[in-house]
Design a protein that fits this description.
Length: 269
């Protein structure tokens, strides 16, 4: 019996209108009634998940959420931290220099400064709009080398971003966990932090085995948790590399793919 189902948000749980459909809500409610934990596992900051946690009635003791691509795992009501893996200002300075060399836009998340960027751009505005947060224009040189940073992102038009990714120095792959989450978002996080690591930390905390976990996602930043879970599921709209490692491919996010997984593997209908 499965005890956790971890769900990516954009392109997975949410349809293209950023909505959780009634069918999916009904399926998730049925799963919870059977004792299965519903865990949102997103690249979004925690502030970008709160309204969905509330909508799905997941703000309570003994309910959990993975934000920032699994770099922060916490209880939803108390906000007690189960696992945290971040970066430092020195990492931001390093990535910022590379972004300038490659001509790609950059922003980052700071626990105290929020969403920060040296200059506003189209996809930083997209990030802010998706999550309902403010943009803080910040001179990255003013960020202390030891200051905590949650994650860094290269953000730009897909063709510009892809060209930059192709030119990334090899050492960057050695220093960080890198993943493309959308055609215009490239995530740079702690080498030891990803959705798979975060999900494992939560499962271990709850004494749940990997074989009792379902993970559902669509993009490169979902690969680690899909590989970790006993049942790793790729969305029908998912990237090729995600489908290649998944044990099951469900329908797309426009066709209630998450509901199909819950109905088939948890509710047995």
């Amino acid at each position: 019996m499965y005890k956790i189902i971890a769900l990516d948000m954009d392109g997975t749980l949410l349809n293209e209108d950023k909505v959780v459909t009634d069918r999916t809500k009904k399926a998730l409610k049925g799963a919870r009634e059977k004792g299965v934990k519903i865990v949102l596992a997103s690249g979004r900051p925690i502030d970008g998940l709160k309204r969905y946690l509330k909508e799905l009635d997941l703000v309570d003791n003994d309910e959990y959420v993975l934000s920032y691509n699994g770099c922060l795992v916490q209880e939803t009501k108390s906000e007690k931290i189960i696992c945290e893996m971040g970066l430092k200002g020195s990492d931001l300075h390093y990535a910022y220099n590379i972004s300038k060399e490659l001509g790609v836009n950059i922003h980052a998340f700071s626990p105290i400064r929020g969403l920060i960027t040296p200059k506003n751009s189209k996809y930083t505005e997209v990030e802010a709009d998706i999550n309902g947060i403010d943009i803080n224009i910040c001179d990255f040189d003013e960020v202390g080398a030891d200051e905590n940073i949650v994650k860094i992102m290269f953000i730009d038009e897909p063709e510009i971003l892809d060209a930059a990714i192709e030119k990334l120095p090899k050492e960057m792959y050695e220093k960080y966990y890198l993943a493309k989450s959308t055609p215009y978002f490239f995530e740079i996080i702690n080498k030891d932090g990803n959705k798979g690591v975060g999900l494992k930390a939560l499962a271990d905390h709850l004494n749940i085995a990997a074989e009792e976990v379902i993970a559902v996602g669509d993009a490169g930043n979902d690969l680690a948790m899909i590989e970790y879970a006993g049942l790793g599921v790729a969305m029908g709209n998912g990237h090729k590399e995600v489908k290649e490692v998944a044990k099951y491919i469900t329908k797309s996010n426009e066709e209630d793919g998450v509901a199909e997984v819950v109905e088939k593997f948890i509710l047995n209908i």
